[in-house]
Amino acid sequence: MLLVLCVDLDDDLGRKTGFSTPVIGREPVEEAAVALATADPEDSDVNVIFQGLHVYDDLADRNESVEVAVVTGNDEGDVNANREVGDEVDTVLASLSTAEDVTALVITDGAQDESVIPIIRSRVPIDGVRRVVVRQAQNLESMYYTFKQVLNDPETRGTVLIPLGILLLIYPLALIGSALEMPGFVIGTTSALLGLYLISRGLGLGERLDEAVERARRSLYAGRTTLLAYVVAAALFVLGGVSGMNTLESVQESASGDVGAPVVVAALVYGSIQWIAAAGITTSLGQITDEYIAGRLEWRYLNAPFYVISIAVVLYAVSAYFLDEVGINVLAAALTVGTLLGIASTLTFAVLESRYADEEPEDASSARSTDRL
């Protein structure tokens, strides 16, 4: 008996139609092909399945012993997909009620699906492999469509567009010497912009930006305070950066010579930490408010503002010490206060959470006892 085996390595049939695989028999396979063609007419696996039906009908007309089946893998990677195909081939072979030796004719739509051939060969002899190629793909008109499909495929665009975009970004470096000349400037700018575009398409930044805008729109219409808190926090971050730069300028003006890197960092932190801490407290309170409104608030979530304050106290004291604003005693006291504040908040909310968690089952059991009475 010849088994016509249609291979769908990434399980487009199961994911797009809900068909359970493997599909065995002429009529079930035809139903699966029609369902997949209806769900996604552009899927190349549609042609694979119809090609399998064509081969089956041709051999059946010659009165040969033949059966057709569709086996699929999954979208979790080549190894897991190959194992899934092997298991389904075993299922198909076990379902064949024949005393004849079974050989297989494997039908695929490309080299990726053909990577599973060694798995199939380990279970059944293979008489041949047939790759289905759509004739229209040879036309110039469909080359544009094929390239467009490549750009829309997340797997392909990540492996092709990102390296190409990096190469286009590296190319302008060779034109640095002639950057001010018109031909070099035009070519370098064009190459850099095209490289940035390809990298953004490869990473799917456009889709992610659309998703972020959609989430922001939903948050706005849902009245979530997190969105407002993030906007206020962003403004506070900007003010903190400005304050840190002002502090750094003051330190540099008062210094007799050049200041070292530790002093520069300390000045930036000293001038901005209050604003950054206020931004952290704002965002944590906004998140806590939304969790409370949604009924998902847990006691440990209340630790966030206290942690922000603890970290801010420690960083403020350390930066002030490097700027000679405080002494070692004040630094030690600030480190102790910050540590104790974080530990105290953790213990307090942990005790409250465990206490109320223990009381909830008792209240529920009391309610059930009251119901029985």
Automatic annotation (TrEMBL):
InterPro entries: DUF373. Keywords: Membrane, Transmembrane, Transmembrane helix. Signal peptide: none annotated. The keyword Repeat does not apply. The chain crosses the membrane at residues 158-176, 182-200, 221-239, 259-281, 301-322, 328-352. Coiled coil: none annotated. PANTHER family: DUF373 FAMILY PROTEIN, HYPOTHETICAL MEMBRANE PROTEIN, CONSERVED, DUF373 FAMILY. This is DUF373 family protein. It comes from Natronolimnohabitans innermongolicus JCM 12255. The lineage of its organism: Archaea, Methanobacteriati, Methanobacteriota, Stenosarchaea group, Halobacteria.
